[in-house]
Amino acid sequence: MRKQQQRSTGARLGRAEAGRPEQGVVRDAAAQWQPAVAADEEWLQRCRAALLAWFDASARVLPWREDRDPYRIWISEIMLQQTQVRQVLPYYERFLARFPDVAALAAAPLDAVLKAWEGMGYYARARNLHRAAGEIVTRYGGRFPGEAEAVLGLPGIGSYTAAAILSIAFGLPEVVVDGNVVRVITRLTAMAEEARAAAGRKKIEAMAVAFFDPGRPGDFNEAMMELGAVICTPRSPSCDVCPVAGCCAAFREGAPERYPVKSPRRARPHHQIAAALIWREGRLLIARRPEKGLLGGLWEFPGGKQESGESLEQTAVREAAEELGVEIEVAEKYMSVDHAYTHFSITLHLFHCRYLGGSPSCRACSDWRWIAPEQLREYAFPRANGRVIDALLQEKNVLPKI
Ligand code: SF4
């Protein structure tokens, strides 16, 4: 089976007017950057027609393609950021069953939305969905707006997501340029410039607008993203079955994986995190993170980053005092798990700890609870905690009597 590639964010929205008045601009741009394949109209038309014919015949059947409901498309677009289609599908079905429309999402407590999102990561997306649903209800009477300015004003909707919603749900000529589109375009044109540099992005956007079909905006955008997701994949593009191979400069060169050209990324920092499983009479103390910031609003075992000169045990004790004002002592090490975020990675070390004193109060959290281990699944935790919770629930009869 061909790979399904995640969509990446960070794209730009470009508007192509119906009737192609933008083509003069595009030709100027194409002339300046001298692509390996000349962006002439005959080439563009041939390539565009082949792409759309392929999409008409082979588009994947996906639940958000059943109709043009902007709510359903919006949810899918947010979920597909940083996450692959096959991972999104079960979450999407559950989320839509739980929150079938904007009104249901707006009326739900944030905790319920975070719980429905649990396991997908990037929780800011869920918090922004919830906030945006509230704004759609209060500002637009519950109707998802169909104007670019209004859509871009909603929390969590950037130019890429706005272009996708407006073109797919409303048929507006907005050009999507996501990671898949960048890959396809840089390969079609064998673009030598660094794709993440400002000049490279400008050329890619100019080419995306040139290539765009304002007569079928939603289909065209979906076709480009689909091609990048299932055929023109990063490491092993299936050029032998690609509908646009006949117009592809990278294919002709014989090394499409070279594109897009990227400078090496800096190494991600790695942090050691210590967290305390604080026991009192068979119950565990959990804390809710502040709503703003990384993993905002999620529940966690109190803990934080190891500071210089500190043992991990000392970190756990210090964090419990700083976050909740409780005094604890470490009884024993429980387990460690590794987890990678976008810009850094962590090793999370868990310690079974004895509660010694102090009434919990929120010094650096937004809520706290003493709960039985069986209740852990009722709370939304960051993904890094998933294995810890699984282990605690499996071992509940052999946990230390602290
Ligand atoms: S021919 Fe190969 S490199 Fe070119 S667009 Fe198709 S899959 Fe990508």
Question: How would you summarize the topology of this molecule?
Answer:
Layout lengths: L12 E3 L7 H11 L7 H18 L11 H11 L4 H14 L3 H6 L2 H8 L6 H17 L7 H5 L6 H12 L3 E3 L2 H10 L9 H14 L5 H14 L18 H5 L16 E11 L2 E6 L10 E2 L2 E3 L6 H13 L2 E14 L4 E13 L9 E5 L14 H9 L8
Can you give a write-up of this model?
- This protein is of the alpha+beta class and 402 residues long.
- The protein has 15 helices and 9 strands.
- Strand 7 (327-340) and strand 8 (345-357) form a beta hairpin.
- Iron/sulfur cluster is lined by residues 184, 187-188, 231-232, 237-239, 242, 244-245, 248, 250-251, 256.
- Iron/sulfur cluster binds at residues 184, 187-188, 231-232, 237-239, 242, 244-245, 248, 250-251, 256.
Please tag this protein with its features.
402 residues, alpha+beta, 7-stranded mixed beta sheet, two-stranded antiparallel ribbon, 9 strands, 15% strand, disordered N terminus, binds iron/sulfur cluster
Give a brief rundown of this model:
This protein is 42% helix and 15% strand. With 402 residues, it is of the alpha+beta class. Strands 3, 4, 5, 6, 7, 8 and 9 form a 7-stranded mixed β-sheet that branches. Strands 1-2 form a two-stranded antiparallel sheet.
